Amino acid sequence: MVFNPFRRDPRSDERLEDGRPRLPPGQRLTDGWPVLHYGGIPRIDLATWEFRVFGLVEEELTLNWDEFMALPQAQMQNDIHCVTTWSKFDNDWQGVRFRDIVARVKPLPEAKHVVFHSYGGYTTNVPLDEMLSDDDMLAHTHNGEPLSIEHGWPLRGVIPHLYFWKSAKWVRGMEFVAQDRPGFWEMYGYHMHGDPWTEERYG
Question: What is the CATH number of the domain that holds 140?
């Protein structure tokens, strides 16, 4: 059989349980994992690494790496979709689900959004009620290996139903806020929400 590099991947025609196409419009499948980020890669030392949850919560939380890894661990598999039009199917992740962190800090009733803060200064915003499914987590492992530093080691968000810029790399904190607030790319014209199936790429 002659190899055809332009053969259409049959997975492109699959459907999700809710009837949506598995591959969102305007996307193309890749077996690789492109490295995309703004600015340099931050230098992080696990000995001084810190994860903080703050803002409109009853109990603020600050953890070192060992304390974070002592939280309940979960595994999941999902697809990811970048606003630059690539998608990668069947990613296996390990980490801590957002809902377990939310249950621990107890958001106040007025808390409606979360702003992720990353080492290096990056931020992005996500509605709180869209972070509570089985698929949404802070991940430290991808496909059985610790995240590479280019992909957000030691910890990145994974919110697979939104474009992947919402899944912040090098996460160091989550801030609970009442009003939606643009993060880094949102201030430069990216969409405040970022749904791949409705192509919410730019504001």
Answer: 3.90.420.10
